[in-house]
Write a structure and sequence with these properties.
The structure holds three protein chains of three kinds.
Chain A: H1 7-19, H2 22-44, H3 49-65, H4 67-80, E1 84-88, H5 91-104, E2 109-112, H6 116-120, H7 123-129, E3 133-136, H8 139-146, H9 163-174, H10 182-199, E4 202-205, E5 209-211, E6 216-221, H11 225-231, E7 235-241, E8 245-246, H12 252-263, E9 271-275, E10 289-295, H13 299-303, H14 319-323, H15 325-330, H16 341-352, H17 354-357, H18 359-362, H19 369-373, H20 380-393, H21 399-412, H22 415-431, H23 444-447, H24 460-467
Parallel strand pairs in A: 1-10, 2-3, 2-4, 4-7, 5-8, 7-10
Antiparallel strand pairs in A: 5-6, 6-9
Helix pairs in contact in A: 9-10, 16-20
Chain B: H1 2-7, H2 23-27, H3 31-44, E1 51-53, H4 56-69, H5 76-83, E2 86-88, H6 89-96, E3 105-113, H7 116-121, H8 126-133, E4 136-140, H9 156-159, H10 161-177, E5 182-185, H11 188-200, E6 206-209, H12 210-215
Parallel strand pairs in B: 1-2, 3-4, 3-5, 5-6
Helix pairs in contact in B: 4-5, 6-8, 10-11
Chain C: H1 2-14, H2 20-27, H3 40-50, H4 58-72, E1 75-79, H5 82-96, E2 100-103, H6 107-113, E3 119-122, H7 129-133, E4 137-140, E5 144-146, E6 151-155, E7 170-176, E8 180-181, H8 184-195, E9 202-206, E10 211-212, E11 220-221, E12 228-234
The chains are: A alpha/beta, B alpha/beta, C alpha/beta.
Chain lengths: 468, 217, 236
């Protein structure tokens, strides 16, 4: 990732680089095509996928529109079962809460299972600075951590890497054998991480859902790393955004298959675990302490937007990334955000400010593939449009754009001007011939890669008149 | 489009005062500006029984987004009534006029590109294919990911030319694989994007609007 | 307090009702909205009506469970009696040369393994994690088998804690055919009834052996959890 401070400039530079890398783009496309075909097959097994999708999104609506009630219920239930709930307004509070727990237990090493929210608050950087060993246990996360990179995709963190690159990485960092075989590479990671589990004092996980009714978190995974993270270390910390709440336990019976289908194309992921509290009196293992860290970090700002609050229903399946032509061509790192793809482009301006992140809403052809695929029916591409409107309304588009739009309106409301502009365009086209193809050509951005037909000799109106 | 509709026995008028539906401003986020242009559209087309549009994108703007623009305005009823009279060309033929064969002829193989607005905002998918299947001499071959965006997206194509072009590059790959002579679409803006790129890359595939195809005799 | 601050902001945010237009657009669908009863019943109904159909009879459920198990690479064995289950486990011991087995206090498990001449680690009371880690297999019970998803539903009561079913490289579940239910919602209902609101701290739906596809989308079994999952169902 480039070190540029301006997110827009960084986006453009990175997009230039990735779009020029045909090989990597082909690799991504092949991978996502595999996702598409398994997902379609799984979805087709549903008796009525569309209704299942509506019922699932309905459960999330109910939670979001009554979030104060369900959030309080969730916390009270959890605490009644011996867990400690930490309410954190922002990243800093969450980092400090977690750091304090770790320090209190005099811990040395921390094992983590996949949790995008820890990426959002930049937890690893802080813990490492404080001298703790932090190990990501999800294979994909482990790989990107070794490369000192951010996850490429919030469900498939290492999808951009080829097995040869992982081989090189493992040889370099883990002194492993030379192999390109995914199975052997996975076993190398398994051995390394096994030892980390057995010695870790603290396990940090995320949560896919928080069940208000029973005071449980629910974690979805395939590898078993989250199960080990929440079973072996003596302290379990779970970090989750406040929007993860769902009303009832039975909602999971619908949401978990939907999440798996949309996320990976599986009918259900391998382990779906509900954890409510630390080890209880009549239980033989499990952590002696469970901490749930609830994070706002501007989610309430998004909640306050009556048009876009439905984005808080997101279950982070990543389907919108998988079908997004922008994501497929610029890759995950280009976004420069914790949450990539369409959902990231929608929510990042709310979480981190519209001014710096509005370009993500403009970097879309508004094709709507994301909205079509979203299992909880978030109005994604129209929200991009609403972000554009909000930015324009605040004058963030700049004076030139505003003038252009003013000109557009003036011309389009006056047919004679429209016709005149058409004729002038033709004249202009002839007059500007000498500069065509050069950088001062007004159509340079277009013509660099695409031809543009000369204006038609006869306008449709002229044709129409002649025809009559 | 006019020729085809007249051949089918319909009377077609072209209001000469017409300009643009306002989508460029709308998609850039300039809603009040777009609404001013929309006002002009409403005036110009107030008397039409049916409005035929040779573009899924413009149709979507009028049918789907005008109601949003006029949500809290006194004209909201006029707008919702008007949006019921606006049809994209192929849906007008197939769904409204019940025509799937317009008696067109064109020799060769073609592949169809779905414009995103027509497809996802309006649900147009079968209509153009039914019409093309009935064109004499024409064989329709589906390309890989026919429904993925061509990369145009209005100002997006200018603001992010590298991404926009990369998307069209993928489209060319899919189209080339079918070995089709023609790439047909229902949206002039997609065709400007695809055609511009194909021509620059010296692809032999000819890009045609579906109305041009249906007009061939 | 941050709790009050956050809940206050949530309430303030929600004081403005969701834009009905947006909600309608977000939910637009050619399908009519399913009318669901609120509460667990509504979800249970949705799961039955919308998710994959797996039949009503036990035979249908077993057949569906088998098809998905094959796909998941779960070894699903149906045996007629406990005696047959004992034999199946004995055969596995021989084939895989088990030397140490993780078990727990569970009637069915005990009666399936008490004849084996191996070392046992029992996880029902305080046990050593490193000892469990050395086990060749963990054998546990379960609360239910879910036909719709080919899952074994476990809690720390039915499966000897949190680790027995995930730490050893092979997990064997023993179950009875009476435990077969249709959906995950049915599974939750069983736990709800059994524990009557005093929920176990750990519940998990185990659906196939541990897996990853993080490297080039190529499936590898045994990422962190068991490489092998065997479900033995005794049909009474």
């Amino acid at each position: 990732m480039s070190q540029s401070t301006n997110p827009f400039t960084q986006f453009q530079t990175d997009a230039d680089r990735v779009t020029a890398d045909d090989d990597r783009r082909r690799f991504l496309r092949t991978s996502l095509r595999g996702y598409q075909s398994t997902r379609t097959a799984t979805q087709n097994r549903f008796l009525d996928y569309e209704s299942a999708r509506i019922a699932a999104s309905d459960a999330k609506w109910e939670a979001i529109e009554n979030l104060d009630i369900y959030l309080a219920q969730f916390a009270d239930k959890l605490e009644a079962r011996g867990a400690t709930v930490h309410w954190c307004n922002d990243s800093e509070e969450a980092r400090n809460a977690i750091l304090e727990i770790i320090k209190k237990h005099d811990a040395k090493s921390v094992i983590k299972s996949k949790c995008m929210t820890t990426e959002e608050i930049h937890l690893n950087q802080l813990l490492e600075k404080e001298g703790f060993e932090v190990v990501e246990s999800d294979l994909g996360e482990f790989i990107v951590q070794l490369r000192d990179e951010a996850p490429y995709h919030f469900v498939f963190p290492a999808m951009h890497l080829k097995k040869e690159e992982i081989n090189t990485l493992f040889q370099e960092k883990l002194k492993s054998i030379n192999t390109n075989d995914p199975e052997e590479l996975t076993m190398v990671a398994r051995e390394v991480l096994r030892q980390k589990y057995l010695s870790a004092d603290i396990g940090i996980s995320g949560a896919n859902f928080g069940v208000a009714e029973t005071g449980m978190i629910s974690i979805t995974e395939n590898e078993g790393n989250a199960r080990l993270t929440t079973a072996l270390p003596k302290v379990h910390i779970s970090l989750m955004g406040i929007e993860k709440i769902i009303p009832r336990l039975e909602d999971l019976a619908l949401l978990l298959p939907i999440l798996a289908t949309a996320g990976t194309g599986q009918h259900l992921t391998c382990y779906n675990s509900q954890l409510g509290g630390p080890r209880q009196e009549d239980e033989s293992d499990g952590p002696i302490e469970m901490h749930v860290v609830l994070l706002d970090n501007h989610r309430t700002r998004l909640l306050a937007d009556p048009e876009q609050r439905d984005a808080l229903r997101c279950i982070r399946c990543g389907a919108c990334l998988n079908v997004c032509p922008i994501f497929k061509n610029v890759g995950g790192h280009t976004y420069g955000t914790t949450y990539q793809g369409p959902i990231g482009s929608v929510i990042t301006p709310h979480l981190r400010g519209l001014k710096d992140w509005k370009h993500l809403s403009h970097s879309s052809s508004l094709c709507g593939a994301c909205t079509e695929t979203c299992p909880v029916k978030i109005d994604l591409h129209h929200h991009l449009l609403r972000n554009r409107r909000n930015a324009a309304g605040k004058g963030q588009g700049g004076i030139a754009e505003r003038l252009l739009m003013l000109g557009f309106t003036v011309v389009m409301r006056r047919p004679w001007l429209y016709r005149l502009a058409g004729s002038l365009g033709k004249v202009g086209h002839v007059l500007t011939k000498p500069i065509h193809g050069t950088r001062i050509d007004p159509f340079y951005a277009w013509k660099k890669t695409r031809d543009l037909d000369d204006p038609a000799k006869q306008s449709f109106r002229q044709y129409w008149r002649a025809r009559k | 489009m006019v020729n085809v509709l007249e051949r089918l026995g319909h009377q077609v008028d072209y209001p000469e005062g017409q300009t643009c539906c306002g989508q460029p401003a709308f998609n850039s986020g300039y809603f009040p500006e777009a609404k001013k242009v929309a006002d002009h559209f409403l005036k110009t087309f107030a008397d039409a029984d049916l409005i035929a549009v040779p573009s899924g994108s413009c149709t979507a703007m009028i049918r789907k987004f005008y109601p949003e623009l006029y949500q809290d305005s006194p004209q909201s009823e006029v707008v919702s009534e008007l949006s019921g009279r606006v049809f994209e060309f192929t849906e007008l033929l197939v769904n409204h006029l019940d025509v799937t064969d317009v008696g067109a002829k064109l020799e060769g193989t073609a592949t169809y590109h779905d414009g995103c607005h027509g497809l996802r905002e309006l649900g147009i998918q079968d209509a153009p294919r039914k019409l093309l299947e009935n064109v004499q001499g024409l064989t329709l071959v589906e390309m890989d990911e026919a429904q993925s965006c061509c990369g145009f997206g209005g100002t997006f194509a200018i603001k992010f030319p590298q991404i926009s072009t990369a998307m069209t590059q993928v489209k060319l790959g899919s189209a080339a694989q079918t070995e089709a002579d023609y790439l047909i679409s229902g949206d002039p803006s997609c065709l400007m994007q695809i055609g511009g790129y194909f021509s620059r890359e010296k692809s032999p595939i000819q890009c045609l609007h579906i109305a041009e195809v249906l007009d061939q005799q | 307090m941050s709790r009050d601050a956050i809940l206050g902001r949530v309430r303030e945010a929600l004081s403005v009702k969701t834009d009905p237009h947006v909600r309608e657009v977000a939910e637009k669908s050619s399908h009519s909205l399913p009318v669901l009863a609120n509460g667990p019943d509504g979800r249970t109904q949705a799961v039955k009506e919308f998710l994959p159909f797996v039949g009503d009879s036990l035979e249908d459920h077993i057949a569906a469970f088998k098809i998905l198990s094959d796909k998941l690479q779960t070894e699903f064995i149906v045996v007629p009696t406990i005696e047959a289950a004992r034999q199946a486990i004995e055969q596995m011991r021989e084939q895989h040369q088990w030397e140490r087995i993780g078990i727990h206090d569970h009637e069915l498990v005990q009666s399936c393994v008490d004849h084996l001449k191996v070392e046992f680690t029992n996880t029902s009371s305080n046990y050593s994690t490193s000892e469990l880690e050395k086990c060749d297999v963990g054998i546990s019970g379960c609360d239910a088998l879910i036909a719709q998803t080919a899952s074994a539903l476990v809690t720390n009561h039915s499966a000897g804690g949190r680790a027995l079913s995930v730490l050893p490289p092979h997990h064997v579940v023993v179950a009875e055919s009476s435990q077969m239910v249709t959906t995950m919602a049915d599974g939750f209902a069983i736990i709800r009834e059994k524990h009557n609101e005093k929920w176990p701290s750990f519940i998990s739906f185990i659906t196939g052996p541990s897996r990853t596809a993080d490297i080039e989308r190529i499936l590898v079994l045994g990422a962190h959890g068991p490489k092998k999952l065997t479900i033995i169902m005794i049909s009474a």
